[in-house]
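Protein modeling request. Please complete all fields; requests missing the sequence field cannot be processed.
Requester role: graduate student
Desired output: 3D structure, token encoding
Chains: 1
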Amino acid sequence: MNHNGQSCYVLMEYRTKNYIDVWYKIAAMKKVLLFKSASEDYEKTFSKCNYQTIFVEPLEFVYINLQKLSEKLQNGNYHGLILTSPRAIEAVSRCWAPSKFILWNTKRIYTVGESSNRKVKLLLGLEALGTSTGNAENLAKLITKENPESSKFLFPCGNFSSELLPSMLHSSGIVVDSLTVYETKENENLRTNLMAVNDSEEPCCMVFFSPSGCEYIHRQLQTFNNKLSNLPHFAIGNSTAHKIENLGVEIAGVAVKPKAESVIESIEQYFRTLQSCR
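Delivered output (278 residues):
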């Protein structure tokens, strides 16, 4: 074989090896069923850890009381704003005007996660505090620590919002003005989407992101024979985990923080433990 022929052979061998490596990587990727709207952040983070993501949104949201919310946002008597969900941030953004609500530039905005902080920055142009707290209980402790008694906060929330945060703040003498700005409903395509995943995919586990989502999914899975119910169930936080357990299902793991890296850590810890027990 001449020099050129040898070079071509080496190149073909290299390319073939690369293709095989890629094929094995794809074949080895584990699929995870995430009950949330499609997220580029989650998709990228999971892919880096050799996971494929399957997104199924169990919820639909209807925004309400936006006129009332707009009026409250113009009220200068609040010390700050508490936004514990993406929908609450979205509701505020729907009636937001930077020039109109410039007073919020000097007030405290609190949220519970880094993705929510990015959303606050993107939609409202504001910086949020509490992004590393991870849940409502820790956020309430931080707000209590950083603000004097009788401080007043506006708390836009959903119709299924937990009373934990307002109760903790009230017990510390902080006033919370809660306003329901969105209603949570079951996605009308949920059953169809669950059946499609059951028939065509092989996920290794499922991740739940809200108590209401858990309830809707659990109810729909009772309506047809499926493989999904037997998969390990993971939760984004404690309130979601408690809901899963209340439905009579064992919880496999709970993410320490509401972010993709923490979800993956919880999943991998579970499967490592499972492997070591064999």
